[in-house]
Every structure is written in structure tokens, then in C-alpha cells.
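Researcher: Here's a chain I'd like modeled. Treat it as a single chain, no partners, no ligands.
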Amino acid sequence: MEQNIILETSRLILRKLCLDDYQGISKILQDIEVMYAWEHAFSDQEVTDWINENLMRYARDGYSYWAVIEKSSEQLVGVCGIIAESTDNEDHVGIGYIFNKAFWHQGLAFESANACKNYAFRTLKISELTAQIRPENFSSRNVAEKLGMSVIKQFNRLYRGKQMPHLLYGCSK
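Model: Modeled as a single isolated chain. C-alpha cells:
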């Protein structure tokens, strides 16, 4: 597993996801409180598909969501990473983070997202990062703003047949 480590911070290890992460990932993606911005908790199959999608993105893009492991407990506490995405037919490189609610309000989302931001700018030589956030998701918005991001525009994203308003945050190197 050590070869899959991407980043390390004082409290966290970010590594590639694997199918063995199913249980830790399902605790996050199947919690409706965590997934309120998606307006549904994931089914068992959706969790498996989500993990497989990330594995495919590693091969295609070289990055995606990574497992966030808390060093002190060695527990998977969330996912954070760099994601190829698009809004209104424009391609972006985004940053995303989803954490187990037991680990909310401890600065872990910012710590991991800041490490990803630095990795994107320094290692991957990406010049601009974005984040797609629901307007009412104030915790995620606070993380983005702390990262130095600001709102570029509002857009609607079609998800499960429903138009969902989102804010596109962005920052440059």
C-alpha cells in the first residue's frame, strides 16, 4: 500500500483508493447527512461504482479522489483529491473533499485540500483549480475560501435527472 501514498501532512496520509476501502467509503457516501448536497445517500452498488470510477480516473488522468487516512488512528476519515470535471461544457481541474461526519470541524478538509492544491500547482503544474459547491454547503464554501478560492459563477448541474444549482469557485497559481 505504501507505493500508493500521494501526499502526507502533519496529521494525514492521502493515498490511492482501493477496493478494500469499501467499508470506510460506504460510511461516508451512505450517510445522508454527509451526502445532503447530492440529495441522496449512495446504495452499495453506487459506492462500488464510485470507487471504480476513481480507479479509472487514476489511469486516465493520473489523479482523482484519494483516501484520507488519519495518522493517529490509521482510519479512513474522508476522501480528497483533484478531479477532471466540466461546467457548462468548459473543462476544469477541480478539487473535492468529502469527510466522515465524525471528523467534521477538525480542519481535516482544509488540511488535505490545501495539500492537494499545493500538489496540483507545484507537482502537476496546473495553473488554475476550481471547486463545484452547492450554495447552501457553507462548510465546503468556507474550506474553498480558506484555500484562497472565490466564486467565478453560478451554474446548474444535472444530477439524477434534476437541475441542481452550484457555485464554481476558482483560484490561480
